[in-house]
Write a structure and sequence with these properties.
Layout: E1 5-11, H1 18-27, E2 34-40, E3 57-60, H2 65-75, E4 80-85, E5 88-89, H3 94-102, E6 107-117, H4 121-137, E7 146-149, H5 150-155, H6 166-176, E8 180-191, H7 193-198, H8 200-215, H9 220-223
Parallel strand pairs: 1-2, 1-4, 2-3, 6-8
Antiparallel strand pairs: 4-7, 5-8, 6-7
Length: 228
């Protein structure tokens, strides 16, 4: 029997976290079967080379989150495809929540609220702002973990082949088509490592600036020069 869920994780140089992410997924309450697909943007496959779980399906692909996620989706056998960042953890009942949201025939795609794995108040504030913004705009970002009915994801052509903003682009495209995007009242928890490495203020302002410029029509190709 094919799995019901396909969890797709795009990685590059994630040797330090990939096994803990896979182990976390296996602790969750799963109402139906799942498969885990890891797509490495490093052609040498350094991240997939350290995976200990022999049941995980792996591939290498052209570097770029959109390309890697499309590669994983092309391999997927599940009815529901879930795009998970390597440093993000799902809530314990995530699978039941996703299945419940997509049981509504008019709902074909969804995402979660966001939490950041830190006890510092500034991170709680940033997460609240992100969750509030996504509810107002109905445009969640990729670190909120997108999930789709696989047939619908294929029907809309998957993620755009762009170096940046593939998450925003696909949500805007869905909205223009009149699609309903469910944002669940439960949070995924992402690592604070980006903010800790770059500095909270610099990382946050940089991200807001890039997103604003994208909405004003600056191409992802130009924006990618300022994002590392």
């Amino acid at each position: 029997m094919p799995p019901h869920f396909s969890i797709i994780i795009s990685v590059i140089h994630e040797e330090g976290v990939i096994n803990s992410t896979i182990e976390h997924l296996e602790t969750l309450q799963v109402s139906a079967s799942m498969e885990i697909i890891v797509v490495d943007g490093d052609r040498s496959g350094e991240t997939i080379g350290v995976i200990r779980n022999g049941n995980v399906r792996t591939a290498t692909g052209e570097k770029g989150r959109g390309n890697q996620m499309n590669r994983g989706a092309a391999m997927a056998r599940g009815d529901i495809v879930v795009f998970l960042h390597a440093d993000t953890r799902l809530p314990p009942d995530a699978f039941a929540l996703m299945e419940g949201a997509l049981s509504d025939p008019v709902c074909l795609v969804g995402a979660f609220d966001l939490a950041i794995d830190s006890g510092r108040p500034i991170y709680r504030l940033l997460a609240k702002i992100a969750s509030f913004r996504s509810r107002i705009t109905r445009i969640p970002y990729g670190d909120q973990t997108f999930f789709f009915r696989r047939d619908y994801f294929n029907d809309i052509g998957g993620f755009a082949n762009i170096p940046l903003m593939e998450d925003v682009e696909i949500m805007r495209r869905i909205k223009k088509r009149g699609g309903r995007i469910a944002i669940l009242n439960r949070s995924v928890t992402t690592s604070a490592r980006r903010w800790e490495k770059e500095g909270i203020l610099l990382c946050t302002l940089r991200n807001w600036l890039l997103i604003s410029l994208y909405f004003f029509g600056v191409s992802p190709e130009r924006l990618s020069k300022f994002y590392k």
